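In the laboratory, one determines a bound structure by crystallizing the protein with its ligand and collecting diffraction data. In a computational setting the workflow is compressed into a single prediction: the sequence and the ligand go in, and a structural description comes out. We illustrate the idea with NAP.
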Amino acid sequence: MGVRVAGRQETNRIRVVVAGATGWAGSALVTGIVEAADMELTGAISRSLAGRQLGEVLGFIDPAVEISGTTKQALASRPDVFVEYTDPSVARQNILEALDAGAHVVVGTSGLTDEDYDSIDRSAQEKRLGVLACGNFSITAVLMMKFSEMAAKWVKSWEVMDYASAGKVDAPSGTARELANRLAKVGLPDIRVAVEDTRGEKEARGASFGGTQVHSIRLPGFVLSIESLFGAEDERLSIRHDAGTSAKPYVAGGLLAIRQVSRLVGVHRGLDTVMDLN
Ligand SMILES: NC(=O)c1ccc[n+]([C@@H]2O[C@H](COP(=O)([O-])OP(=O)(O)OC[C@H]3O[C@@H](n4cnc5c(N)ncnc54)[C@H](OP(=O)(O)O)[C@@H]3O)[C@@H](O)[C@H]2O)c1
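The predicted complex, in structure-token form:
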């Protein structure tokens, strides 16, 4: 990796472009990339700050990376890995453009649909490139999901609570969607009264994702929390993860994904794909 650009000093560092580099999550990740000895930030994308120096905007001295206003412009730096951290309305197009440019892709943006990932997978398979999509880069959140999958093998009734700030526009969160997908692979939960047989408002029972009822709460005071609730006769198990207000929990997992994505071909979902959890 890192040897593709003619006329530049050859290096073994992983060349990375980050779309959404000035955002809450993206700016924390680019700081981690700049500090990582095995990575080189070659491009950054933000529409509103295009033309400015990223270091000046984020308050670090090096490297001198000019912010691009478009994905095409940033991909001219020929990255090994493209990180998508913007908005679901543009994420799919950005990812397909990055694959066309020969980059592996790490996806942090939440809200892409299964259909989006099907078309991305077709493109990635055709080009023999990896796409690692992580609804949550926090290593402790990934552990929460893994523990929930283990619990679902033994406790047959469960539902998911998805808490986020009042301003979060997508529901459920990428983390809740990913958790429900994972639980669906373990099995269908036992629901004693089917949702369609509910008396009163069926919507009060939440939305079903792969058979799991997911309840999204959007209120001031929350950042991002996820909780799986397991019920058995006369006992309950809750497995919960609470994120704080900074984007620091997502940096180590984002860097791990950047380091590992080139080993993959096609779309892979979840950071644990590249974590040894057995
Ligand atoms: N996987 C995880 O662990 C994780 C963690 C945190 C957040 N997220 C997800 O990551 C995404 C970004 O979250 P955030 O909190 O960082 O958002 P944010 O603070 O609003 O930042 C968004 C970034 O993307 C850019 N952007 C926004 N819309 C764009 C568009 N249409 N085209 C190109 N660039 C665009 C913004 O710059 P300009 O407006 O200047 O273009 C900014 O740099 C969300 O989907 C969020 O749910 C995932």
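Residues 114-127 form the longest helix (14 residues). Keep in mind that any predicted model is a hypothesis to be tested, not a measurement.
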